[in-house]
Give the backbone structure.
Amino acid sequence: MSIPNIGVTLLFTKADLISLVPGSTFFLVIINFLIFVFIMKKKFFKPMADIIEKRRVEIEGGLEEAKAAKEEASVIKAEYEDKISKAQDEAAKILREKVEIGKERASEIIEKANKEADRIKDRTMREIEQDRLRAKDQLKDEIGDMVILTASKFIGNNIDDANSKRLVEESISKIGESKWTD
């Protein structure tokens, strides 16, 4: 395989250059390195530095946005905690009011029940007193009838109603009115 001739003839080959200057290999390496650095600086480092700078600016912008978002979140959190605190205070206030209303209602119900109990007690006492008076009157009538019956047997004659009533009243007054009022 042969190398095609491309129409350009090099005046010097690499071996010719190296042999012209003794110790020139070191200089050629340094020159090649400097050329490499210059080309890299123009073609690679500058665009890379621009990309890095853009990325640094983006990162700083992102950090500033994150900081702003964090501050906003802190403000929102503080507002939220304040609202929760107010809601809890309001709930506690409503609960206290409802408990107070419940206590008032309970007091009203108890007071109403006590009044009703007193009313029933008073009515019952009046009924008992009326029943006692009726029983007393009934007992007086029965005792009077027994006294009249007994007296008529002893006397031997029939006593009329007017006389019987008078005798009953006298008998009862002798027995003692104090016993009937107990």
